[in-house]
Structures are given as C-alpha cells and as structure tokens.
C-alpha cells in the first residue's frame, strides 16, 4: 500500500497522484487492480449508490457500512473516507467523537472534511492521530448555500481560497481536495502548499486528480459536470439485462449449457 508519506513524496517528486471514488467491494477491487494511488469513499455515494438528490442525507452509518466493503475490496490501497453532512462542525466534543467512530469503524486511512471553518477540528483530530484531508472550492455538502457552480471566480474569492488553503495546511491537513475552481488558481494553490493538492474540475496543474467512479464510467448517472471525462460506458449493461429478460420469457435461457446433466427423478418414488 502507498502510505501517506509515499503520497506526500509523490508531490515532491513531481509524480501525479490518481484518486477515484469507490463505494463497495467490486468497485474497490477494480480500482485497486487498476493501481490507482488512492480511493475516496465519498459521500457522493448518496447520489451514485443510494439515489438521493444530494450528499446531505448520507449518515455516519452509511459511510461506515460502505467503507468497510471498500476496504475488503481494496486491502492495499490508501482509503480516504468522507465525514458526512451534520457530523462535524457541531461542537468540539461531538465532532471528535464522530471522527473517532468513523476512523475506527470504517477501516479508512484518513478522513475528509469540507470547508475552512473546520481548522480547529483539523488541529484537534490531527493531534489525536487522525489524518485529515481538507476539501475546499465547491463543497457539495454546502450546495444548498453555494449551488453547483465555479468557486474562487472573483479576485476576492480567489484570495480567500488561497488563505483558506494555507490555513488548512497549518491546521495539519495531510492533503487538500480542490473542486470546481479556475485552473490558474488551483495551480497557484498547489505551488504554494507543501501538502498534495488533488483537483476535480480544477485543471491539470494540481498534484493529482480525483473523479467519481460512476461519472467516469457512466454508470447510472443522469447528468455530468463539465469536468468529467467519460472513460467507459457501463450503461451498456442495460442491453444485456434486456436480452436476459427476453430470453427468460421466451425460454431460451437456461439452455442445456447452463443446466446440470444429472437426472434423478427415475430413482425417486413420487
Ligand atoms: O464525495 C465525493 O465524491 C467528493 C469528490 C467530489 C471529491 O467529495
């Protein structure tokens, strides 16, 4: 497994870091087989896997349940687990209790939290030995307030984002995810921080990239953001399911090839 220091060294060596989300055993297994550097068990699982409108409905228990499956599928990959909406930013005691529970029970290697307002929590968690990845720019848990739109797009907002990035680094964050910001701003932040900066919709000059598994493989998604490159089309599975449906109804499946040869009824007194 790549350790945190391996990943931090990659930045020093100018080697790009790859990260993909996974939410269950088979997706985690695929990501590990593809030798992706890091897995994010994102609270995007609310939309991709659980069918919610946003990440807001995802619970600590959901994150634990899915992270444990991911760990079983990818025992040798560095796994970051999202702290979901409403589990951090409440009060010091509750925040840290939730972080301890998630870190212990998810089997993840680090936790991710959204927003620069959580620097005090980042310090506290880091002091307790919990590695924290910060997430700035478009932070999906705050979408009710900020909407799904480009962040850091004015001079003031860009300046603030640079200050926030420095603040989370000072607070002990081990890496930073930057989402949906201008690429020149992401480049500047990556150059000014010593921790790895992983971009999504932040251009090519960050230290690494993260994409959502279901987006990049077109697996059950209704709409795609501008920054998503689709690497495959898993919606093709629908044609296979339609064929199976037709074959069951017409009796084509199961043919002899899919049937045990042994006959027993001549021996049974019925
Ligand atoms: O939950 C998630 O998938 C994320 C990525 C968009 C970075 O936070």
From TrEMBL:
EC number: 2.1.2.11
Cofactor annotation remark: Binds 1 Mg(2+) ion per subunit.
Subcellular location: Cytoplasm
GO MF terms held by the record: 3-methyl-2-oxobutanoate hydroxymethyltransferase activity
Recorded catalytic activity of this chain's protein: (6R)-5,10-methylene-5,6,7,8-tetrahydrofolate + 3-methyl-2-oxobutanoate + H2O = 2-dehydropantoate + (6S)-5,6,7,8-tetrahydrofolate
Any one Pfam family match given in the protein's UniProt record, by short name: Pantoate_transf
UniProt-annotated binding residues for Mg(2+): 43, 82, 114
Positions with a binding annotation for 3-methyl-2-oxobutanoate: 43-44, 82, 112
Chief subcellular location: cytoplasm
Keywords from the named record: Cytoplasm, Magnesium, Metal-binding, Pantothenate biosynthesis, Transferase
Pathway participation: Cofactor biosynthesis; (R)-pantothenate biosynthesis; (R)-pantoate from 3-methyl-2-oxobutanoate: step 1/2
Cofactor(s) for this UniProt protein: Mg(2+)
HAMAP family: PanB
Subunit structure, as described in the record: Homodecamer; pentamer of dimers.
UniProt function note: Catalyzes the reversible reaction in which hydroxymethyl group from 5,10-methylenetetrahydrofolate is transferred onto alpha-ketoisovalerate to form ketopantoate.
Similarity comment text for this entry: Belongs to the PanB family.
Stated name of the protein: 3-methyl-2-oxobutanoate hydroxymethyltransferase
Lineage: Bacteria, Bacillati, Bacillota, Bacilli, Bacillales
